[in-house]
Structures are given as C-alpha cells and as structure tokens.
TrEMBL record:
Its main location: membrane. This is MFS transporter. The keyword Transmembrane helix applies. It is a multi-pass membrane protein. It comes from Streptomyces spectabilis. GO terms for molecular function: transmembrane transporter activity. It is found in: Cell membrane.
Length: 404
C-alpha cells in the first residue's frame, strides 16, 4: 500500500507538472497573439496614409481581416478535431507573424485588403485553436483559469502597442512589422515543442464537466447559447474598434502626437489586463451576472468619455475605463455558453464574439464616413450597454442562473 500511494503521488505530481508547462506555453501563445495584433493596429494610421485610402476604403480593406478570420474559424474546429488543437495552434503561430509583415508592402486599399485576408485567416485560426486548447486544460485542472489566458492576450497587446508607440517616430511600418514577424517566429520556435509534447488527457474531471453540461437540443438552450454569444459579440466589437480606430481618433480628431496616439490602445489593454487578472476574485464575490452588468455599464460610460472627450488626456482615461469594464464580460459569456451546451456552446459563442471583434472596425469606418469618427465610436458604448441589459435579463432566467 505505501508503494502504491507513492506511485500514485508521483504520477499526480508528474501530471501537475505537465499541466503547468502546458499552461505556461498556452499563456505565451495568447500573449504573442495580442502582441502581434497590437503591433499591426498601431501602424494603421501610417499605412492608411501610405495607401491613400479614405475612411470607407480603409474600412473595406479591414474587412479582409474579418473575412479571412470568419472563413478560418469555421474550418479550425474541424482541423483541431482531426489533428489536435496543439498542432493547429503552432501552425497558426507561424503563419500569423509571417502575414503581419505584408501590409506595409502594399500601396493601395485593394492590395491591403488582399493581404489582410491572409492575416485574418491566421489570426482567426490561432484564436479558435488556442481557446480550444485552453478549454480542455481548464476542464482538466477544474480551476477557473480562463481569465488568465485572456489577461495574457491583453498584456501582449499592451506591450505591442507600447512598443509601437516608442518606435512609431523612428521606424517605418515595414521595418517595425518585419521585426514583429521575426520576434513572433522566434517565440513560436521556443514554445512550440512544449505544446506539441504534452497533451491534455481525457480526465474524469473533464468527463464530469461534459456530462454536467445541459445537452438538450431544445430551442431554449440553443437560444441562450446564441444570446451569450451576442453578449460576447457586443463587447468584442468594442475591443476591435478601439484596436483599429483608437489611435486614428486620437491623432486625427484630437491632434495627438503619433506616439501618444499609439499609447491609446496601450492604456485600454493595460486596464483590461488588470481587470482580467482580478477577474476570478471579482466573479467569486459578485457572481457572473453582476460582473457583466456592472462591466457593461462601466464600459459604456468610459467609451462615451473616450469618444467625445475634448482633450487627449481625457480620451485616454475613457479608453482605460472602457478596458476595465469590458475585461471579464467575454470570458463570462463563453463560460455560460459552455455550461449550457458544453464544448459546442463554447465554440458557437467564441465564433460570434471574435466575429464582433473583427466586424467592428469596418462598421466603424462606414459610420465615420457617414457621420464622424467620434460619433461612430459611440456605437461601442451602445453595444456595451446592450450587453449589460442582455446579461441582466438572462441572469433572471432559471437556466442562466444555473449556468452562472
């Protein structure tokens, strides 16, 4: 018996060590995703000037990211099922840095849109693959660590945006994004062996989680999954809008220096990182519904301040408040969808959420041409408030309370 207990203890320690290594590797990929994406978005004003695109033409070009990502998202789930989410994450971890170096090589809105199709495909693929791997690991750990992965994405975005602000006045977009590509490939080469070596076993804990999830095929369950996906879409719309248009708003409407303008997304990402790092504690104290409702209302107020501010400093404060408000809404929406319908619910809500992040920027571009960029950015506040209303409404239903 002592020998058996010792063997079991050693096996448990080995499994825990493997999980720790996997968690660290996945965290690096989430951070890399945010880093590369932010590096691209802070150079959008310079690339807009380089291509001579109008706001609506730039919006159409940015639609290339959305189109590429949506197509890839519909295929990535199947690829993960066939080949595993870890290998797909690694492949996308190579393709995304390579594709981010292409936009500065274009000199027209059409060419920019075409290369952004490739970037969007890689971006959509790595997000679905990473989240699939993270969901499996969370189920195996039986700990609510999903916010920590999204915090890594936000931290990577903050660093990428901050670095972009520092080099904006010294490096051309071509050299900057080529440097990001080299960094991304190096990080993937160092981290990929860990991700490829370890797999998450089908533990009893994961099986219990799947069994406990409501599996009904009724319209009520499917409808609630779509509702939580809509909440994720409303909030991710704001993240995408600030990523692609925040710097341009500061530079064009408030006459901010390019370096200061690039810091706008950094402020947003930093605040979101802080919010997500404290997300588990917040959820334990307030619950999912109160966290989402409060966050949505806070984000709405912050975005109104950021969009309509008369000065750069006030706008930056508004961006930070928006980041704090939006921080944990997306993870809560994904968690509730998974509780209702298991992994299929997670996939559906994630796709809707990232669709909002990718479709938001071109929508902002069209509204900016029709009205103005500040007015267009107030749509972020409207959707954040809508997410709060939806969360309050669904949180009062028995099914939603059971999922919380």
């Amino acid at each position: 018996m002592p020998l058996l207990n010792k063997t079991t203890s050693e096996a448990s320690e080995a499994t825990s060590h493997d999980f720790s290594r996997l968690r660290a590797a996945l965290t690096v990929f989430f951070a890399l995703d945010g880093f590369v994406f932010a590096g691209w978005v802070v150079r959008i004003p310079a690339i807009k000037e380089q291509t001579g695109a109008s706001a609506s033409a730039l919006g159409l070009a940015l639609l290339g990211v959305s189109a590429g990502a949506v197509v890839t998202m519909t295929l990535t789930g199947r690829l993960c099922t066939r080949f595993g989410s870890h290998p797909v994450t690694v492949v996308c971890g190579v393709l995304m840095p390579l594709s981010v170096a292409l936009p500065p090589l274009t000199h027209s809105a059409l060419a920019l849109g075409l290369v952004l199709l490739l970037f969007g495909a890689a971006y959509g693929g790595i997000n679905v693959a990473m989240n699939s791997a993270a969901v499996d690991l969370v189920q195996a750990l039986r700990r609510p660590v999903m916010p920590s992965f999204h915090a890594a994405f936000s931290l990577g975005g903050m660093i990428g945006a901050g670095l972009g602000g520092l080099v904006a006045g010294h490096l051309s977009p071509t050299r900057h994004l080529l440097g990001l590509a080299l960094i991304g490939l190096l990080v993937t080469a160092v981290t990929a062996p860990t991700l490829l070596r370890y797999e998450v076993p089908k533990t009893p804990a994961a099986a219990d989680t799947r069994a406990a999830a409501p599996r009904g095929s009724g319209r009520g369950t499917r409808g609630l999954v779509l509702v939580f996906g809509l909440v994720a879409l409303c909030t991710a719309y704001g993240e995408g809008a600030l990523a692609d248009w925040g710097a341009l708003h500061l530079e064009q409407d408030l006459d901010a220096h390019p370096g200061v303008a690039a810091a706008g997304y950094s402020c947003f990402a930093f605040a979101m990182t802080i919010g997500r790092l404290s997300g588990t504690t917040l959820l334990e104290r307030l619950g999912g519904t109160r966290t989402v409702v409060g966050g949505g209302l806070l984000a709405a107020a912050g975005m109104l301040l950021g969009a309509l501010a008369p000065s750069t400093g006030v706008a930056l404060a508004g961006f930070a408040i928006t980041g704090l408000g939006l921080a944990n809404i997306f993870p809560v929406a994904i968690e509730r969808a998974g509780a209702l319908a298991g992994p299929s619910g997670v996939a559906a809500a994630s796709t809707l959420g990232y669709g909002g992040m990718l479709l938001g920027p071109p929508a902002i571009g069209f509204m900016a041409d029709w009205f103005s960029l500040p007015v267009a950015l107030t749509s972020v506040a409207v959707l954040a408030a809508l997410a709060a209303c939806i969360a309050w409404s669904t949180g009062r239903t028995p099914a939603a309370r059971g999922a919380a």
